[in-house]
Structure formats: structure tokens, C-alpha cells
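Budget justification aside, the reviewers requested a transparent look at the raw inputs and outputs of the sequence design task funded under Objective 1. We therefore reproduce one unedited record. The lines immediately below are the C-alpha cells for a 287-residue chain.
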């Protein structure tokens, strides 16, 4: 068992959960697009500034860099926009829960791209994690309001894009095993895409309050740490292990919501979901 791999993957899950909750504070005064326009370029700038210390550019591999560029066209920029929009419309619980389908997309593409099929125990663990977090969705719902059907497509689309990004990055890391290179190139491309989206708007957009700016800078930093940790985990282990472990972040979101927002911990279905999710993680670790 690679304990370091497990800790890195769970640290990534915690960071994704924390960013999801912190986003709620920024969205109180700032629109999702404006928040993403702050978060993504800020984090890209940070990775670029520290790249002389973190990236050995002499190891440049053209095929890997191309893969990182392609991933950067939609991850994290499109995922961030979709997640922020979903967060504002249906809240962090549903956003995090529907994002739980990420490992299913990731594993399917891992089988196609890198012939990395899960064994029986891993497959059962993945199913258990998805089912467990689905029960958290049943227990939480969306308060008294039922979300519009189209809004559920926002986190589902984010889960799909996040899922296909993982095996693609894993493939790129084979020739250039540098998570910092992957995250730096990806974020730089995403920042350019984000700039194009902002410049392409017909309206001027809203000017964020000062508090909103700082919230989204923090969200960007935490999201950047989550992506970096995800890539570090992928550089050490298979997608079939990393993707399900990182997908546990909705479970952590519930506890962070309790800590920061005072929301109650779910009961009945929720507790069953927690138990099944933890059991699924146990199966993965056993495998």
C-alpha cells in the first residue's frame, strides 16, 4: 500500500471540498464568471512565478506538453465556471454530490487510453463510493426548493470534464513526470481561455466587492493546491485508485459546511451514505 499516494489523494479531496465551501462566501457578492476570472488567472500567475523553482524546463517533452495544453483548454477553467455556476444555483451539497460521478468517467477513459482496468475489489470500491455519496444527495436534497433539471447538468458536466482530464494528465506524465509542469501549463492555458471569455462578453460584467476579490483569490489558491495534489497522486498511482479517493470530497464538504456555514450533518440516508463511502474507500485501500 502506497501510504503517501493515499494521503496526497485525500489531501486533494480536502482541498476541493474547502474550495467548494469558500466559494459560497465569494458568490454572495460576486457573479460566477467574475469569480472565475479572478481565481484562475491569479493561480496561473502564482504557478508561473514559482515555475523556475518547481519546473525543470530542460526536461521538456513535446507530446506531454501538448497533452497538458489540451487539458488546460477545459480544466480547470471550464470546470471552475461550471462548478461556480452550480454552486450558486443549487448549493455546495448538490454540486459536490453530483461531482461524485467523476471516477466513473475517469475509469472508463483510463481503460480506453492507458489500458488501466480496475480489478474486482477496486470496481466494487468505486461503485460503493458513488452509491454512498448518492445517498448523501438523497439525504440533503436542496432544502424546500427543487432545482430546475437543467441546473443539474452543470455539476454533471464538470464531473465529466474533470473525469476525462485525469487519464489524459496521467498519459502526459508518462513522458514528462512533473506534476508542477502539468499544473503550470494547464493553468496558463486556462487563464488565456478565461481572458478570452471575459473579453468576449458583450456587457461589462459586474465589478466585484473587495471582499469578493479576496475570497476568490483564496478559492483560486485552494483549487490550485487541489489540482496540484491530484496530479502528484496521478504521478504515483493509477487512475482507478486516485479518482475514487479524490471523489470523496463531497463527504468532506458536508463536514466543512457544518464548520463554516453551520449546516446540519445528515441523518438516516446520510449516515448510511457516509458508512458506504468509507467502506468503498476501505475496499480501494485493501486492493
Amino acid at each position: 500500500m502506497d501510504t503517501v499516494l493515499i494521503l496526497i489523494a485525500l489531501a486533494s479531496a480536502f482541498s476541493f471540498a474547502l474550495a467548494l465551501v469558500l466559494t459560497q462566501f465569494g458568490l454572495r457578492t460576486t457573479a460566477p464568471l467574475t469569480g472565475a476570472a479572478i481565481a484562475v488567472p491569479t493561480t496561473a500567475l502564482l504557478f508561473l512565478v514559482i515555475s523556475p523553482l518547481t519546473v525543470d524546463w530542460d526536461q521538456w517533452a513535446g507530446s506531454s506538453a501538448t497533452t497538458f495544453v489540451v487539458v488546460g483548454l477545459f480544466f480547470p477553467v471550464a470546470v471552475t465556471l461550471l462548478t461556480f455556476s452550480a454552486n450558486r444555483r443549487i448549493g455546495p451539497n448538490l454540486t459536490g454530490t453530483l461531482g461524485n460521478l467523476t471516477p466513473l468517467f475517469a475509469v472508463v477513459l483510463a481503460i480506453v487510453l492507458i489500458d488501466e482496468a480496475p480489478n474486482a475489489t477496486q470496481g466494487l470500491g468505486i461503485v460503493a463510493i458513488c452509491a454512498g455519496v448518492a445517498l448523501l444527495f438523497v439525504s440533503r436534497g436542496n432544502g424546500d426548493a427543487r432545482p430546475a433539471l437543467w441546473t443539474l447538468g452543470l455539476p454533471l458536466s464538470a464531473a465529466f470534464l474533470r473525469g476525462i482530464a485525469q487519464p489524459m494528465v496521467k498519459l502526459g506524465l508518462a513522458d514528462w513526470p512533473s506534476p508542477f509542469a502539468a499544473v503550470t501549463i494547464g493553468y496558463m492555458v486556462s487563464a488565456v481561455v478565461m481572458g478570452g471569455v471575459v473579453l468576449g462578453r458583450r456587457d461589462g460584467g459586474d465589478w466585484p466587492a473587495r471582499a469578493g476579490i479576496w475570497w476568490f483569490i483564496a478559492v483560486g489558491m485552494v483549487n490550485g493546491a487541489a489540482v496540484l495534489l491530484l496530479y502528484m497522486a496521478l504521478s504515483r498511482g493509477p487512475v482507478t485508485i486516485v479518482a475514487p479517493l479524490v471523489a470523496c470530497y463531497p463527504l468532506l464538504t458536508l463536514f466543512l459546511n457544518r464548520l463554516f456555514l453551520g449546516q446540519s450533518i445528515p441523518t438516516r440516508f446520510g449516515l448510511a451514505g457516509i458508512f458506504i463511502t468509507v467502506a468503498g474507500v476501505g475496499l480501494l485501500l485493501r486492493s
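The mean pLDDT is 84. The longest helix spans residues 210-236. Computational costs for records of this kind are itemized in the attached budget.
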